[in-house]
Specification:
Strand content: 5-15%
Oligomer: single chain
Distance between the termini: 44 Å
Helix content: 55-70%
Length: 741
């Protein structure tokens, strides 16, 4: 069987039966989450203008940004960093051992590429401080060209920091995954400048790497050269002594091998030579450590923790450069990173000093060992001298000459190898792809900006729509009545326009549908009349109570014009003003009677009739509220009221009763229980859905038959009005004029 709601909506012709059944089933049988989704969908349909405005506004803003934002270009170059330390000459043992894995070494080189030293070198070489494409005015940055001195080295620290900040923001160094190739990108408004800066940075990095490794090798080579000169001098002195001794003694080719003392002396001499070589090696390391260069010290002592500390130092410097470029020197994380870097620097210095002291101790131990062996050899020489005389002295001189020559030749070989290494491994960086002038701008990215703007506009539109719906819970359309309150819609009443009553100075009385029968307002009440007549199965309702939730919602105007519309159909209609607290019907109709409903209910009229015939419509009688009684609710709930209703049922086809608001007093609820149907009036944009639901519950608590709700005061040119009728008010104007003719 059909429910009352389904039947009323079906016969009124407003909503198809299938749609109503689906909606009722959705509301009553689905879960809370699905109901929420339905409410959201309904809200978005109501607020689609807001949704469209936000969406189009965001797109318009994105288009404006795309048009206003200057074009910027990305130039990129790729460098191959070869960390393979092998070469074709078998000199691998001379390569420095850093103790770092390849990934860490690549990260360290990337931080060097992002360093301020290389950045300042490129700024000076390319004169970026005087280039307006780099140092000129931008959206949020002032021009730095005017502040730059002729000699950029004399620039203030603030200007230097600003130039460095712009350079770091435009630079991006990344490592291609699973390769040893580093990509350098620079962004600028001038595409030629972007390519020029990338190539200059790559060349500056290669040159720096070349100089660093070459200078380290040459430094060791210079020290070896000094040692060679000293050894050469000593060897020459030994050779001169040997020649002089041979000349004095005449000993040539003496064989001292079979002498036990000479064998022992030979062994000690070999040990002394080894000790001298060890002392020289440790002295070389010790002297290199005196430079306090962490890189050289790490090369000398690869097993120390200095390599790990330098890795942390490089990482912190990179992080500090990025944070300083992004947030500035006063940012807390920048200050924290600077403090951490200072701690690491201090640890590196301490480790360098510790390694230096260790190398010094090793050098002193080797020196002492050499001295002890030298003393032992001297003693052995004295003994051999005593035993062998001139032959032993000759042998010692010859050994001294041989050892000096061997040591000299060994160091000379290492010096030559160091020179070869400086030439072969000074640069192991190759430019795979040099930067070329970009043809397409990197920003603005129109497609991305439009997509983000569309998504933002859609999300913000949904948010604004839901927020407005949350803040404004009023009923605006008949669809809102059906959806939020589960009450059938009997139609909508448009607002009375001033152009429909051109003579505004004339005081109009009586129902508005009589003043302008061809207006949309009158047509709406004729549609309401049809809906009421078809709202009940069988016979049309006789007693019709018209009420609302709160005051000022248009129930009196609705009841007056509804009664007039029923009377126009040739039916005998009685209009009763049951709002004895604040009556207004006599003002709308321009009539007043001393005998009203209050007098009829109190019995003070006797057998006299309370009804007054309305002059403009013979089939319409009116009973005004009369004098205000002290107890309106008790009078309406009395048996006298029920008797009057029974009497009126026999005299009239329809009795339209205007009542007070339901939520204000109980009068309307009392009369609703006696009526055949109740018509609820909701004012568009003013009546709240909560109020209407509460009114519905109060009426259902007394088993009142709610025929439906009427939404009045709707703007005829509004979107809701056009959607409800499927046309605009302007298109219907000729139809109404033709109907009136």
């Amino acid at each position: 069987m059909k429910t009352e709601t389904e039947h009323a909506l079906t016969v009124s012709g407003r909503i198809p039966t299938t749609r109503l059944r689906a909606q009722n089933a959705s509301i009553h049988s689905i879960g809370t989450d699905e109901v929420s989704l339905l409410e959201i969908g309904h809200t978005l349909r109501r607020r689609k203008v807001t949704l469209a405005t936000c969406f189009l506004g965001a797109l318009a803003l994105a288009v404006l940004i795309i048009l206003v934002m200057p074009k910027r270009f990305d130039a990129s170059a790729r460098l191959f960093l070869d960390f393979d330390d092998s070469d074709a000459f078998g000199l691998e043992q001379l390569q420095p051992i850093t103790g770092l894995d390849p990934t860490t070494r690549l990260q360290s080189q990337m931080r060097i590429l992002e360093s301020e030293t290389l950045a300042w070198t490129v700024i000076k070489q390319e004169h970026l401080y005087s280039n307006r494409a780099f140092a000129g005015r931008s959206f949020f940055q002032r021009s730095l060209v005017e502040d730059a001195p002729r000699d950029i080295d004399q620039a203030s620290p603030e200007l230097r920091a600003r130039l460095m900040n712009r350079f770091q923001k435009s630079l991006n160094v990344t490592l291609l995954p699973k390769t040893e190739i580093v990509e350098i990108r620079f962004r600028s408004g001038d595409p030629a400048l972007a390519a020029q800066v990338v190539n200059s940075l790559a060349n500056a990095y290669i040159e720096r790497r070349f100089k660093t490794k070459y200078e380290a090798t040459i430094h060791a080579s210079d020290w070896l050269t000094d040692q060679l000169n000293d050894l050469k001098r000593r060897a020459e002195e030994s050779q001169a002594k040997l020649a002089e001794y041979q000349k004095q003694t005449g000993l040539l080719g003496t064989d001292e091998v079979h002498n036990v003392v000479m064998q022992k002396l030979e062994q000690l001499d070999e040990q002394l030579s080894a000790a001298q070589g060890d002392r020289l090696l440790r002295e070389a390391k010790y002297r290199l450590s005196l430079s306090n260069d962490p890189q050289l010290v790490a090369t000398i002592e690869p097993e120390s923790v200095l390599s790990s500390l330098r890795k942390q130092q490089a990482d912190l410097r990179g992080q500090l450069a990025q944070l300083n470029a992004k947030f500035g020197p006063s940012y807390p994380r920048v200050i924290q990173s600077r403090a951490q870097l200072a701690d690491i620097d201090s640890a590196v210095d301490q480790e360098v000093k510790l390694v230096g002291r260790q190398l010094q101790n090793e050098y002193m131990a080797a020196l002492k060992t050499e001295q002890l062996l030298a003393a032992t050899v001297d003693r052995q020489k004295q003994e051999a001298y005593k035993m062998n005389g001139e032959a032993m002295q000759f042998a010692m001189l010859r050994r001294d000459v041989d050892s000096s020559r061997e040591l000299y030749e060994d160091l000379l070989k290492r010096l030559k190898e160091a020179g070869i290494l400086a030439g072969l491994k000074s640069s192991n960086v190759n430019i795979v792809d040099p930067a070329s002038i970009p043809a397409e701008p990197a920003e603005p990215r129109a497609a991305l900006y439009l997509a983000l703007a569309g998504a933002f506009g859609l999300i913000s539109g949904i948010g604004v729509s839901l927020l407005r719906a949350k803040m404004d819970g009023s009923i605006r359309t008949p669809e809102d009545v059906e959806f939020y309150c589960e009450i059938p819609s009997l139609g909508m009443i448009p607002r009375i326009l001033e152009d429909e009553f051109p003579d505004a100075d004339e005081q109009l009385t009586g129902p508005a549908i009589l003043q302008r029968p061809s207006s949309q307002f009158a047509e709406a009440f004729r549609a309401l009349r049809t809906a009421l007549l078809l709202s009940s199965p069988g016979a049309p309702p006789k007693v019709i109570v018209v009420t609302s939730s709160l005051p000022q919602e248009g129930k009196s105007v609705t009841s007056t014009n509804c009664a007039a519309a029923l009377a126009q159909a040739g039916r005998k209609v009685l209009l009763v003003d049951a709002d004895m607290r604040r009556p207004t019907l006599h003002q709308h109709l321009g009539m007043r009677s001393p005998i009203g409903l209050s007098a009829c209910l109190s019995g003070s009229t006797g057998n006299a009739s309370c009804a007054i015939s309305f002059a403009a419509m013979p089939t319409l009688d009116v009973i005004t509220a009369g004098e205000r009684p002290p107890n309106p609710a008790e009078l309406l709930a009395s048996e006298s009221m029920q008797a009057l209703l029974d009497q009126w049922r026999g005299q009239y086809h329809h009795i339209v009763i205007d009542t007070p608001p339901v939520l204000a007093v109980t009068d309307a609820v009392i009369l609703a229980a006696m009526a055949d149907c109740v018509v609820l009036v909701a004012r568009s944009g003013q009546t709240g859905s909560q109020s209407l639901r509460r009114t519905r519950e109060l009426l259902r608590s007394v088993n009142a038959k709610i025929a439906g709700a009427v939404v009045n005061d709707l703007e005829p040119k509004s979107l809701a009005y056009s959607e409800y009728y499927g046309h605009s008010s302007d298109k219907m104007a000729p139809y109404h004029r033709e109907r009136s003719c």
